[in-house]
Specification:
By secondary structure, this protein is mainly beta. It has one domain: 60s Ribosomal Protein L30, Chain: A (2-Layer Sandwich). Helices cover 8% and strands 66% of the residues. It contains one helix and eight strands. The strands form two sheets. Strands 1, 2, 3, 4, 5 and 6 form a six-stranded antiparallel beta sheet that branches. A two-stranded antiparallel sheet has the order 7-8. A hairpin with a 6-residue loop joins strand 7 and strand 8. The two termini are 13 Å apart.
């Protein structure tokens, strides 16, 4: 285990609107506000998108089990944001439900908001960490500096 200590900086209340691309809009906010590290919690709905629901097999490097969803799902999630030389690196896990079905996984790519997502973003100050591609896994993993 490795760790670093910091404090909470600015707090942002964010309303994502219908058809917003969740990760792209979050990335744009981080760039505009020069956010280097943060955590985000949210509730709302996603219209369509992609999730990674674990690996197909528990081996390294893992092959992701990708699941596409559509037609609007209730969602709640939490994520982290760390900025490196390539820009904001965002990692969001969410649980989603529709009728009597549920999905849990890592939100990917162009997942679109349905109606609204209400989010609270907590900026983390003094954190010595970033995300980079890990050569062993091929994943964009947290690295404590």
């Amino acid at each position: 285990m490795k760790y670093t200590q910091g404090t909470i900086g600015r707090v942002f209340l964010v309303k994502f609107e219908n058809n917003d691309i969740l990760i792209a809009n979050l990335s744009n906010l981080a760039k505009k506000e020069k956010i280097k590290a943060a955590t985000i919690i949210f509730i709302g709905a996603l219209k369509q998108g992609d999730l990674v629901t674990g690996p197909k097999q528990p081996v390294i490097p893992p092959e992701p089990n990708k699941v596409a969803f559509k037609d609007g799902w209730e969602v709640m999630g939490i994520g982290t944001l760390f900025t490196n030389a390539k820009g904001p690196q965002i990692h969001i896990h969410a649980t989603m439900g529709k009728k009597n079905k549920a999905l849990t996984g890592c939100v990917r790519g162009n997942s679109k908001v349905f109606l609204v997502i209400e989010a609270v973003l907590l900026e983390l100050k003094g954190i010595k960490a970033q995300k980079d591609i890990d050569p062993a896994t091929g994943l964009n993993l947290l690295r404590i500096i």
